[in-house]
Amino acid sequence: MYPHRIHLRGPWDYEPLRRIEPTASCPAEAALPPPGTMRLPCRWSDGGLRGFRGVVRFHRRFGKPSRLDPHERLWLVCEGADAISHWHLNGHYLGSHVGPFTPFEFDITERLELRNDLRVEVGCHNLTGKPVLRGTLGPEGGLWGSVAVEVRGPADLTDLAVWTVFDGQRPLIHADGLVRTFRPALLELHLLLEDALIHRQAAEAAPGTAAFRVDCPLDAVRPRCWPDDPRPHLLRLELIEGAVCWHRMTFALGFRSTDLQSGRMETVDLLEPIREAHQLAQADQLGRPIRLRLPSASLLDEEAEGQYRQIVRGLAHHVSIEAWVVSGRDAKTLAARLRDWDPTRPVLVEA
Q: In the listed set 256, 280, 308, which residue is the last one of a domain according to the structure?
């Protein structure tokens, strides 16, 4: 079953490289902390580098998965690196990523060897002038999201967004994203709710990426209405070629009535990588509605806008989010973008 994930958890070697922001207690000429070992994922403040503001190199060796088929591809994935990271595999530069909350990946199919050397340089948020969405995280750093190698087939799904709409009468599931293929294929996209097929459509067969959109009404389904019954419905997206499933993604969904009056609810800040948002998953399961405050929009350029878009699309399936909350100099502009990315929720602008 694809994707097959091989986690690179556990001990990584680390070495502080330089300070970025000297403090009274740690001036620029102060000696760097010594190298050590850190169990990842974690923030480096929890792994022996509390108070350090600078750049740290993380190092991990791992082997190549055995018995790979010719059609299989290998991806290096990270759920979150705070805040700017640069990735090298076996001496080759893979790329960089900005922003602590959002996942990213690199195709390493042609780079992987029998024994592999992975090096990641991570800098805290003021390493460059690039806008980084931090919110209340503070001057931290580290590989705080899971790192893994994924074995995938020749076609997969990416940039996924899933949410539900329910007017009290007719539930609807929305899904959109990209189908990515590496060879010609006759593909179908299947949606299954509680293992029952509810939708199927042809998907792009030419190599490259192609967008898809699904708006699937559930005429024969009587959904559980959240939060009175918070038990989740499980939605599965499958990318099929013949009898083979090349990619499978599962989402826990709820159906919140648009007539629902939630009354008092708390406002919480985004404090985790979006694919590891345990706080939101717990709120879903407990039937606890929240307003989710996004990091302050102090500089909304193209790169920052892309980070916000990925956050909102990645969290849209959490039924506990009743509204998005934004603040900062460019909050009104961001609010307009949010209403396009998620038309099902209100956006509240804080002064």
A: 256
- Measured distance CA(135)–CA(133) in Å, rounded: 6
Total domains in the chain come to 3
For residues 218 and 123, give the distance between their C-alpha atoms in angstroms, rounded to a whole number. 47
Residue that finishes a domain, picked among 108, 128, 152:
152
Provide CB contacts within 8 A for 264, sequence distance 6+: none
Report the CATH number that the domain containing residue 123 is assigned in CATH. Answer: 2.60.120.260
Task: Please write down the long-range contacts of 124-130, taking CB distance under 8 Å and 24 or more positions apart.
Answer: 124/20, 124/21, 124/53, 124/54, 124/55, 124/82, 124/83, 125/82, 125/83, 125/84, 125/100, 126/20, 126/21, 126/53, 127/20, 127/55, 127/83, 127/84, 128/84, 130/84, 130/98, 130/303
Region for 125 from its dihedrals, namely left if φ exceeds 0, alpha if ψ lies in -120 to 50, beta otherwise: alpha
Tell me the residue range of the domain where 44 lies: 4-152
Which parts of the chain fold into alpha helices (H)?
A: 278-286, 302-315, 331-341
Task: Write out the two tokens for 158.
Answer: 């990416």
Residue 282 and residue 223 in one domain:
no
Helix (H, G, I), strand (E, B) or coil at 76: strand
Do 206 and 343 share a domain, yes or no? no
Whether residues 144 and 32 fall in one domain:
yes
Look at residue 261 and tell me if it is in a domain: no
Q: pLDDT tens for residues 45-102? A: 999 999 888 899 999 999 999 889 999 999 999 999 999 999 999 999 999 999 999 9
Q: What is the pLDDT of residue 26?
A: 60
Q: Report yes or no on 320 lying in a domain.
A: yes
Tell me how far apart the alpha carbons of residues 176 and 155 are, in angstroms, rounded to a whole number: 16
CA-nearest of 96, 94, 76 to 6 is 76
Whether pTM exceeds 0.85: yes
